[in-house]
Design a protein that fits this description.
By secondary structure, the protein is an alpha/beta fold. Helix content is 36%, strand content 24%.
């Protein structure tokens, strides 16, 4: 598989290492210094694009992928207000698109546990839900995309919760997400239900970037030659 790697920071290099170890080829590496090389002609030399940049550039990068008509995997967060535009553009050109707030297999299992736990807690209003996420200081967005996914899952299961807030909750119906930025910290996410009697917690802690990178390569392998909109649930068969 020939891969266009859009974003060549620490995550991009981790993806490259795993992709090469699996026999794939990186035919295009795009970073801030050579962003002008992200052209339709260059993208057409690849089978799939993997986009890991940031909230300010993800939308433009993905539009270029739609113009080239190649499938794309995206792990950038902080741009999802424009998700429907990107989704529609990929559907229109008959290509494939897969976005995930987190590509780690462990985190996606964690998502499934989170939904199940929230469903169980929905009939126990004596427990107050909260989320805490810790990342490295270079992470540009807060809360993390993973934390937002966890929050949306909880809100969908617990009727008394109406929205999340990126600080300690002050009103009923708010789900607090506490964001901390510390080095080194690839990523920790904690979901806690607190009551006067006890606490219930589930925690996922990443030890390095390999889980995220490996999942991104797995997703790229999955969408090659496909059409439509997918998620990690499709990749993992959940």
């Amino acid at each position: 598989m020939k891969i266009a790697l859009i974003g060549y920071g620490k995550m991009g290099k981790a993806i490259e290492k795993i992709a090469l170890s699996k026999g794939h080829e990186i035919v295009l590496r795009i970073d801030l210094e050579n962003n002008h090389e992200l052209t339709t002609q260059n993208l057409l030399n690849s089978d799939v694009a993997i986009e890991f940049t940031g909230p300010s550039s993800a939308f433009t990068n993905l539009i270029k992928c739609t113009e080239a008509g190649i499938p794309a995997v995206c792990g950038s967060t902080g741009w999802l207000k424009e998700y429907s535009v990107i989704r529609d553009a990929f559907q229109k050109n008959g290509s494939a698109f897969l976005y995930a707030s987190n590509f780690s297999i462990g985190v996606n299992i964690f998502f499934e546990l989170n939904k199940k736990l929230a469903n169980l807690m929905a009939t126990h209003p004596e427990y107050m839900a909260g989320i805490r996420e810790i990342h490295h200081t270079h992470k540009l967005d807060a809360p993390s995309g993973t934390a937002i996914t966890l929050a949306e899952q909880i809100i969908s299961e617990i009727p008394t919760l109406k929205n999340w807030i990126n600080k300690t909750g002050e009103k009923s119906g708010e789900l607090p997400i506490i964001s901390e930025r510390l080095d080194p910290a690839p990523g920790t996410h904690e979901v806690k239900y607190q009551s006067a009697i006890d606490d219930i917690e589930i925690i996922h802690t990443a030890h390095n970037r390999d889980g995220f990178a490996g999942g991104a390569v797995l997703a790229a392998e999955f969408i090659q030659h496909k059409k439509g909109i997918y998620s990690m649930k499709d990749v993992l068969g959940f």
